[in-house]
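batch_manifest entry 22 of 60
target: Sugar MFS transporter
source organism: Runella salmonicolor
requested by: lab member K.T.
priority: normal
notes from requester: please return C-alpha coordinates only, no post-processing; we will run our own comparison against the previous entry in this batch. if the run fails, retry once and flag.
--- input ---
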Amino acid sequence: MKSNTFIVILIFLIFFVISFLSNILGPIIPDIVSGFDLSIGLAGFLPFAFFVAYGVASIPSGILVEKYREKKVLLWAFMMAFGGALLFALVPTFTVALVSLFIIGIGMAMLQVVINPLLRVAGGEANFAFNSVMAQLFFGGASFLSPMLYSYLVLNVHAGTASNAVINTLNQIVPADLKWVSLYWVFAVVAFLMVVVVRFVKFPEVELKEDEKIDTENAFKDLLKNRYVFLFFIGIFCYVGTEQGIANWTSKFLQTYHNIDPATEGASVISYFWGLLTIGCILGLVLLKIFDSRRVLILFTVGAIVSVLVGLFGPVQAALYAFPLSGFCASVMWSIIVSLALNSVPYHHGTFSGILCSGIAGGAVVPLIIGGLAELVGLRLAMLFLMITLGYILSIGLWAKPLVTNATVKSWKELFS
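--- output ---
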Protein backbone atom coordinates (compact mmCIF):
# COMPACT_ATOMS: atom_id res chain seq x y z
CA MET A 1 0.00 0.00 0.00
CA LYS A 2 2.85 2.39 0.85
CA SER A 3 4.55 1.59 -2.44
CA ASN A 4 1.36 2.23 -4.42
CA THR A 5 0.70 5.50 -2.60
CA PHE A 6 4.22 6.63 -3.42
CA ILE A 7 3.71 5.72 -7.10
CA VAL A 8 0.44 7.69 -7.20
CA ILE A 9 2.19 10.74 -5.73
CA LEU A 10 5.00 10.30 -8.26
CA ILE A 11 2.45 10.19 -11.10
CA PHE A 12 0.88 13.41 -9.80
CA LEU A 13 4.38 14.91 -9.86
CA ILE A 14 4.81 13.74 -13.46
CA PHE A 15 1.52 15.45 -14.41
CA PHE A 16 2.88 18.59 -12.73
CA VAL A 17 6.16 18.40 -14.68
CA ILE A 18 4.40 17.77 -18.02
CA SER A 19 2.29 20.88 -17.55
CA PHE A 20 5.23 22.87 -16.18
CA LEU A 21 7.23 22.20 -19.35
CA SER A 22 4.34 22.30 -21.83
CA ASN A 23 2.43 25.47 -21.05
CA ILE A 24 5.16 28.07 -20.55
CA LEU A 25 5.48 28.97 -24.24
CA GLY A 26 2.64 31.50 -24.18
CA PRO A 27 4.15 33.89 -21.63
CA ILE A 28 7.66 33.78 -23.13
CA ILE A 29 6.73 34.21 -26.82
CA PRO A 30 6.95 38.04 -26.63
CA ASP A 31 10.47 37.71 -25.19
CA ILE A 32 11.44 35.16 -27.85
CA VAL A 33 10.14 37.51 -30.57
CA SER A 34 12.19 40.45 -29.26
CA GLY A 35 15.21 38.36 -28.21
CA PHE A 36 15.64 36.75 -31.65
CA ASP A 37 14.11 39.65 -33.61
CA LEU A 38 11.42 37.40 -35.10
CA SER A 39 8.30 38.18 -37.08
CA ILE A 40 5.02 36.99 -35.55
CA GLY A 41 4.76 34.43 -38.35
CA LEU A 42 8.11 32.85 -37.44
CA ALA A 43 7.18 32.88 -33.75
CA GLY A 44 4.20 30.67 -34.63
CA PHE A 45 6.64 27.88 -35.46
CA LEU A 46 7.63 27.60 -31.77
CA PRO A 47 4.36 26.03 -30.52
CA PHE A 48 4.20 24.17 -33.84
CA ALA A 49 7.56 22.48 -33.14
CA PHE A 50 6.40 21.42 -29.68
CA PHE A 51 2.88 20.20 -30.36
CA VAL A 52 3.51 18.54 -33.71
CA ALA A 53 5.61 16.09 -31.69
CA TYR A 54 2.38 14.84 -30.10
CA GLY A 55 0.96 14.03 -33.51
CA VAL A 56 4.16 12.21 -34.46
CA ALA A 57 4.87 10.39 -31.20
CA SER A 58 1.57 9.47 -29.49
CA ILE A 59 0.81 6.21 -31.29
CA PRO A 60 4.47 5.02 -31.55
CA SER A 61 4.79 5.70 -27.80
CA GLY A 62 1.87 3.36 -27.11
CA ILE A 63 3.66 0.63 -29.07
CA LEU A 64 6.89 1.28 -27.12
CA VAL A 65 5.07 0.95 -23.80
CA GLU A 66 3.67 -2.45 -24.76
CA LYS A 67 7.11 -3.67 -25.86
CA TYR A 68 9.47 -2.12 -23.27
CA ARG A 69 7.10 -1.38 -20.35
CA GLU A 70 6.44 1.78 -18.41
CA LYS A 71 9.69 2.40 -16.52
CA LYS A 72 11.93 2.40 -19.59
CA VAL A 73 9.60 4.69 -21.52
CA LEU A 74 9.40 7.10 -18.57
CA LEU A 75 13.20 7.18 -18.37
CA TRP A 76 13.55 7.77 -22.11
CA ALA A 77 10.90 10.51 -21.97
CA PHE A 78 12.60 12.46 -19.18
CA MET A 79 16.02 11.96 -20.79
CA MET A 80 14.65 13.51 -24.00
CA ALA A 81 13.15 16.41 -22.02
CA PHE A 82 16.49 16.90 -20.22
CA GLY A 83 18.47 16.77 -23.48
CA GLY A 84 16.12 19.16 -25.27
CA ALA A 85 16.09 21.72 -22.44
CA LEU A 86 19.87 21.55 -21.93
CA LEU A 87 20.52 21.91 -25.67
CA PHE A 88 18.61 25.18 -25.84
CA ALA A 89 20.01 26.45 -22.53
CA LEU A 90 23.54 25.97 -23.90
CA VAL A 91 22.86 27.19 -27.46
CA PRO A 92 20.03 29.77 -27.30
CA THR A 93 19.27 30.39 -30.99
CA PHE A 94 15.96 30.26 -32.85
CA THR A 95 16.90 27.19 -34.91
CA VAL A 96 18.03 25.30 -31.81
CA ALA A 97 14.82 26.41 -30.05
CA LEU A 98 12.73 24.64 -32.71
CA VAL A 99 14.77 21.43 -32.42
CA SER A 100 14.74 21.62 -28.63
CA LEU A 101 10.96 22.10 -28.42
CA PHE A 102 10.37 19.18 -30.78
CA ILE A 103 12.57 16.90 -28.63
CA ILE A 104 10.85 18.02 -25.42
CA GLY A 105 7.46 17.55 -27.09
CA ILE A 106 8.26 13.94 -27.98
CA GLY A 107 9.23 13.34 -24.35
CA MET A 108 5.97 14.84 -23.11
CA ALA A 109 3.94 12.73 -25.58
CA MET A 110 5.66 9.59 -24.29
CA LEU A 111 4.81 10.55 -20.70
CA GLN A 112 1.14 11.17 -21.53
CA VAL A 113 0.79 7.69 -23.00
CA VAL A 114 2.33 5.98 -19.96
CA ILE A 115 0.80 7.68 -16.96
CA ASN A 116 -2.95 7.05 -17.20
CA PRO A 117 -2.80 3.21 -17.24
CA LEU A 118 -0.06 3.42 -14.58
CA LEU A 119 -2.29 5.62 -12.41
CA ARG A 120 -5.16 3.13 -12.75
CA VAL A 121 -3.00 0.23 -11.53
CA ALA A 122 -1.06 2.10 -8.83
CA GLY A 123 -4.07 3.76 -7.24
CA GLY A 124 -6.58 0.99 -7.87
CA GLU A 125 -9.48 0.99 -10.30
CA ALA A 126 -11.94 2.03 -7.58
CA ASN A 127 -9.98 5.25 -7.04
CA PHE A 128 -9.15 5.93 -10.68
CA ALA A 129 -11.80 8.62 -11.27
CA PHE A 130 -10.79 10.52 -8.11
CA ASN A 131 -7.09 10.19 -8.87
CA SER A 132 -7.63 11.35 -12.45
CA VAL A 133 -9.26 14.54 -11.19
CA MET A 134 -6.44 15.05 -8.68
CA ALA A 135 -3.93 14.58 -11.50
CA GLN A 136 -5.67 17.29 -13.52
CA LEU A 137 -5.46 19.62 -10.51
CA PHE A 138 -1.70 19.04 -10.36
CA PHE A 139 -1.55 19.64 -14.12
CA GLY A 140 -3.45 22.89 -13.80
CA GLY A 141 -1.47 23.96 -10.75
CA ALA A 142 1.80 23.75 -12.70
CA SER A 143 0.32 25.77 -15.58
CA PHE A 144 -0.70 28.41 -13.03
CA LEU A 145 2.73 28.52 -11.34
CA SER A 146 5.10 28.34 -14.33
CA PRO A 147 4.31 31.88 -15.63
CA MET A 148 4.96 33.16 -12.09
CA LEU A 149 8.37 31.46 -12.12
CA TYR A 150 9.06 33.09 -15.49
CA SER A 151 8.22 36.52 -14.04
CA TYR A 152 10.42 35.89 -11.01
CA LEU A 153 13.41 34.83 -13.11
CA VAL A 154 13.13 37.65 -15.65
CA LEU A 155 12.85 40.23 -12.86
CA ASN A 156 15.75 38.84 -10.81
CA VAL A 157 18.33 37.37 -13.21
CA HIS A 158 20.92 40.06 -14.06
CA ALA A 159 18.96 42.52 -11.92
CA GLY A 160 22.19 43.83 -10.36
CA THR A 161 21.04 43.26 -6.80
CA ALA A 162 22.26 40.77 -4.22
CA SER A 163 20.26 37.57 -4.50
CA ASN A 164 20.27 33.86 -3.64
CA ALA A 165 22.67 31.17 -4.86
CA VAL A 166 20.34 30.01 -7.65
CA ILE A 167 20.01 33.50 -9.17
CA ASN A 168 23.74 34.09 -8.78
CA THR A 169 24.45 30.84 -10.64
CA LEU A 170 22.01 31.76 -13.42
CA ASN A 171 23.72 35.16 -13.72
CA GLN A 172 26.88 33.30 -14.70
CA ILE A 173 25.38 31.04 -17.37
CA VAL A 174 22.47 33.03 -18.87
CA PRO A 175 23.04 35.80 -21.46
CA ALA A 176 22.08 39.21 -20.05
CA ASP A 177 19.93 39.99 -23.11
CA LEU A 178 18.11 36.62 -22.97
CA LYS A 179 17.15 36.38 -19.30
CA TRP A 180 14.16 34.12 -20.04
CA VAL A 181 16.60 31.37 -21.15
CA SER A 182 17.07 30.78 -17.40
CA LEU A 183 13.74 28.89 -17.55
CA TYR A 184 15.36 26.22 -19.70
CA TRP A 185 18.12 25.69 -17.15
CA VAL A 186 15.36 25.11 -14.59
CA PHE A 187 13.62 22.71 -17.00
CA ALA A 188 16.86 20.79 -17.55
CA VAL A 189 17.42 20.41 -13.79
CA VAL A 190 13.81 19.30 -13.18
CA ALA A 191 13.94 16.74 -16.01
CA PHE A 192 17.30 15.40 -14.77
CA LEU A 193 15.96 15.01 -11.22
CA MET A 194 12.97 13.09 -12.62
CA VAL A 195 15.38 10.75 -14.47
CA VAL A 196 17.14 10.04 -11.17
CA VAL A 197 13.87 9.47 -9.28
CA VAL A 198 12.35 7.17 -11.92
CA ARG A 199 15.62 5.22 -12.19
CA PHE A 200 15.40 4.10 -8.55
CA VAL A 201 11.64 3.55 -8.26
CA LYS A 202 10.09 0.10 -8.64
CA PHE A 203 6.90 0.35 -10.68
CA PRO A 204 3.95 -2.08 -10.50
CA GLU A 205 3.26 -4.43 -13.39
CA VAL A 206 0.66 -2.83 -15.64
CA GLU A 207 -1.68 -5.13 -17.52
CA LEU A 208 -3.24 -2.99 -20.23
CA LYS A 209 -6.98 -3.33 -20.63
CA GLU A 210 -8.34 -3.96 -24.09
CA ASP A 211 -9.51 -0.35 -24.27
CA GLU A 212 -5.97 0.85 -23.46
CA LYS A 213 -4.15 -1.17 -26.12
CA ILE A 214 -3.27 0.23 -29.53
CA ASP A 215 -3.82 -2.07 -32.51
CA THR A 216 -2.16 -0.62 -35.60
CA GLU A 217 -3.64 -3.12 -38.03
CA ASN A 218 -7.27 -4.28 -37.92
CA ALA A 219 -8.47 -1.64 -35.45
CA PHE A 220 -7.33 1.24 -37.66
CA LYS A 221 -9.17 -0.21 -40.64
CA ASP A 222 -12.38 -0.61 -38.63
CA LEU A 223 -12.16 2.84 -37.08
CA LEU A 224 -11.46 4.67 -40.31
CA LYS A 225 -14.77 3.36 -41.65
CA ASN A 226 -16.63 5.22 -38.87
CA ARG A 227 -17.18 8.90 -39.66
CA TYR A 228 -17.44 9.78 -35.95
CA VAL A 229 -13.76 8.87 -35.51
CA PHE A 230 -12.75 11.60 -37.95
CA LEU A 231 -15.30 14.09 -36.58
CA PHE A 232 -14.13 13.69 -32.97
CA PHE A 233 -10.47 13.76 -34.02
CA ILE A 234 -11.19 17.19 -35.51
CA GLY A 235 -12.93 18.09 -32.23
CA ILE A 236 -9.79 17.34 -30.18
CA PHE A 237 -7.69 19.11 -32.82
CA CYS A 238 -9.88 22.22 -32.49
CA TYR A 239 -9.94 22.13 -28.69
CA VAL A 240 -6.16 21.92 -28.22
CA GLY A 241 -5.69 24.44 -31.02
CA THR A 242 -8.07 26.84 -29.24
CA GLU A 243 -6.41 26.34 -25.85
CA GLN A 244 -2.91 26.89 -27.22
CA GLY A 245 -3.99 29.65 -29.60
CA ILE A 246 -5.26 31.67 -26.63
CA ALA A 247 -2.40 30.72 -24.30
CA ASN A 248 0.36 31.39 -26.85
CA TRP A 249 -0.84 34.65 -28.36
CA THR A 250 -2.66 36.47 -25.55
CA SER A 251 0.47 37.93 -23.95
CA LYS A 252 1.77 39.16 -27.32
CA PHE A 253 -1.70 40.59 -28.11
CA LEU A 254 -1.78 42.50 -24.80
CA GLN A 255 1.73 43.82 -25.42
CA THR A 256 0.92 44.90 -28.99
CA TYR A 257 -2.47 46.54 -28.46
CA HIS A 258 -2.42 47.58 -24.79
CA ASN A 259 1.31 48.00 -23.96
CA ILE A 260 1.08 45.35 -21.23
CA ASP A 261 4.48 44.12 -19.99
CA PRO A 262 4.65 40.41 -20.94
CA ALA A 263 7.05 39.61 -18.07
CA THR A 264 4.65 40.79 -15.36
CA GLU A 265 0.99 41.50 -16.13
CA GLY A 266 1.02 39.48 -19.36
CA ALA A 267 2.40 36.44 -17.52
CA SER A 268 -0.23 36.91 -14.78
CA VAL A 269 -3.04 36.82 -17.36
CA ILE A 270 -1.74 33.51 -18.73
CA SER A 271 -1.29 32.20 -15.20
CA TYR A 272 -4.92 32.99 -14.38
CA PHE A 273 -6.03 31.52 -17.72
CA TRP A 274 -4.61 28.14 -16.63
CA GLY A 275 -5.75 28.61 -13.02
CA LEU A 276 -9.36 29.24 -14.04
CA LEU A 277 -9.20 26.36 -16.52
CA THR A 278 -8.33 24.11 -13.58
CA ILE A 279 -11.06 25.52 -11.32
CA GLY A 280 -13.56 25.15 -14.16
CA CYS A 281 -12.77 21.43 -14.31
CA ILE A 282 -14.14 21.05 -10.77
CA LEU A 283 -17.35 22.95 -11.55
CA GLY A 284 -17.66 20.94 -14.74
CA LEU A 285 -17.68 17.69 -12.75
CA VAL A 286 -20.67 18.97 -10.77
CA LEU A 287 -22.53 20.23 -13.85
CA LEU A 288 -22.03 16.89 -15.61
CA LYS A 289 -23.87 15.23 -12.72
CA ILE A 290 -26.85 17.51 -13.33
CA PHE A 291 -27.04 18.19 -17.07
CA ASP A 292 -26.48 16.34 -20.34
CA SER A 293 -22.83 16.80 -21.32
CA ARG A 294 -23.81 18.17 -24.73
CA ARG A 295 -25.74 21.03 -23.11
CA VAL A 296 -22.79 21.79 -20.82
CA LEU A 297 -20.47 21.83 -23.84
CA ILE A 298 -22.73 24.25 -25.72
CA LEU A 299 -23.06 26.57 -22.70
CA PHE A 300 -19.33 26.73 -21.97
CA THR A 301 -18.39 27.09 -25.64
CA VAL A 302 -20.71 30.07 -26.07
CA GLY A 303 -19.10 31.54 -22.95
CA ALA A 304 -15.64 31.01 -24.49
CA ILE A 305 -16.68 32.69 -27.76
CA VAL A 306 -18.02 35.74 -25.90
CA SER A 307 -14.92 35.92 -23.67
CA VAL A 308 -12.48 35.80 -26.60
CA LEU A 309 -14.42 38.47 -28.52
CA VAL A 310 -14.49 40.77 -25.47
CA GLY A 311 -10.77 40.17 -24.97
CA LEU A 312 -10.00 41.04 -28.58
CA PHE A 313 -12.23 44.08 -29.02
CA GLY A 314 -12.89 45.35 -25.51
CA PRO A 315 -10.86 47.91 -23.52
CA VAL A 316 -7.70 46.86 -21.70
CA GLN A 317 -9.39 46.19 -18.35
CA ALA A 318 -12.01 43.99 -20.03
CA ALA A 319 -9.28 42.09 -21.88
CA LEU A 320 -7.35 41.42 -18.67
CA TYR A 321 -10.42 39.62 -17.28
CA ALA A 322 -11.89 38.17 -20.47
CA PHE A 323 -8.88 36.12 -21.59
CA PRO A 324 -8.52 34.28 -18.24
CA LEU A 325 -12.31 33.76 -18.25
CA SER A 326 -11.99 32.01 -21.62
CA GLY A 327 -9.82 29.44 -19.82
CA PHE A 328 -12.63 28.83 -17.36
CA CYS A 329 -15.04 28.30 -20.25
CA ALA A 330 -12.63 25.93 -22.02
CA SER A 331 -12.21 23.79 -18.89
CA VAL A 332 -14.85 21.16 -19.64
CA MET A 333 -14.24 20.82 -23.37
CA TRP A 334 -11.48 18.18 -23.38
CA SER A 335 -13.22 15.75 -21.02
CA ILE A 336 -16.63 16.13 -22.68
CA ILE A 337 -15.30 15.72 -26.23
CA VAL A 338 -13.29 12.62 -25.26
CA SER A 339 -16.19 11.05 -23.36
CA LEU A 340 -18.66 11.77 -26.19
CA ALA A 341 -16.16 10.28 -28.65
CA LEU A 342 -15.61 7.06 -26.70
CA ASN A 343 -19.35 6.73 -26.04
CA SER A 344 -20.12 7.15 -29.74
CA VAL A 345 -17.82 4.37 -30.98
CA PRO A 346 -18.40 0.97 -29.32
CA TYR A 347 -15.08 -0.74 -30.17
CA HIS A 348 -11.26 -0.40 -30.26
CA HIS A 349 -11.17 2.29 -27.56
CA GLY A 350 -7.42 1.95 -27.05
CA THR A 351 -6.60 2.66 -30.69
CA PHE A 352 -9.33 5.31 -30.84
CA SER A 353 -7.78 7.04 -27.80
CA GLY A 354 -4.43 7.03 -29.60
CA ILE A 355 -6.04 8.65 -32.63
CA LEU A 356 -7.70 11.26 -30.40
CA CYS A 357 -4.39 12.01 -28.66
CA SER A 358 -2.84 12.60 -32.07
CA GLY A 359 -5.36 15.45 -32.35
CA ILE A 360 -3.21 17.28 -29.78
CA ALA A 361 -1.27 18.33 -32.88
CA GLY A 362 -3.95 21.02 -33.17
CA GLY A 363 -1.86 22.85 -30.60
CA ALA A 364 0.85 23.00 -33.28
CA VAL A 365 -1.25 24.03 -36.26
CA VAL A 366 -3.68 26.65 -34.90
CA PRO A 367 -1.07 28.94 -33.28
CA LEU A 368 0.97 28.67 -36.49
CA ILE A 369 -2.05 29.69 -38.59
CA ILE A 370 -2.72 32.63 -36.25
CA GLY A 371 0.92 33.71 -36.54
CA GLY A 372 0.79 33.50 -40.33
CA LEU A 373 -2.48 35.43 -40.54
CA ALA A 374 -1.09 38.06 -38.16
CA GLU A 375 1.59 38.86 -40.76
CA LEU A 376 -1.21 39.72 -43.21
CA VAL A 377 -4.01 41.28 -41.16
CA GLY A 378 -2.58 41.92 -37.68
CA LEU A 379 -2.81 39.79 -34.55
CA ARG A 380 -6.26 41.01 -33.46
CA LEU A 381 -7.99 39.89 -36.66
CA ALA A 382 -5.79 36.78 -36.90
CA MET A 383 -7.03 35.59 -33.49
CA LEU A 384 -10.56 35.59 -34.90
CA PHE A 385 -9.52 32.25 -36.40
CA LEU A 386 -10.41 30.92 -32.94
CA MET A 387 -14.05 31.52 -33.85
CA ILE A 388 -13.73 28.70 -36.40
CA THR A 389 -12.29 26.21 -33.92
CA LEU A 390 -14.76 27.22 -31.20
CA GLY A 391 -17.58 27.07 -33.73
CA TYR A 392 -16.69 23.46 -34.52
CA ILE A 393 -16.61 22.57 -30.81
CA LEU A 394 -20.03 24.19 -30.44
CA SER A 395 -21.33 22.06 -33.29
CA ILE A 396 -20.31 18.86 -31.45
CA GLY A 397 -22.94 19.63 -28.82
CA LEU A 398 -25.53 19.71 -31.62
CA TRP A 399 -24.63 16.66 -33.74
CA ALA A 400 -23.10 14.21 -31.22
CA LYS A 401 -25.30 11.16 -30.65
CA PRO A 402 -23.54 9.04 -27.99
CA LEU A 403 -24.68 5.46 -27.54
CA VAL A 404 -24.61 6.10 -23.79
CA THR A 405 -25.29 9.53 -22.28
CA ASN A 406 -23.67 10.71 -19.05
CA ALA A 407 -25.47 9.68 -15.86
CA THR A 408 -27.26 12.57 -14.12
CA VAL A 409 -28.83 12.88 -10.69
CA LYS A 410 -32.53 13.36 -10.04
CA SER A 411 -32.16 15.38 -6.82
CA TRP A 412 -29.66 17.49 -4.88
CA LYS A 413 -29.47 14.73 -2.29
CA GLU A 414 -28.12 12.31 -4.94
CA LEU A 415 -25.52 14.88 -6.00
CA PHE A 416 -23.80 14.84 -2.60
CA SER A 417 -24.43 11.19 -1.70
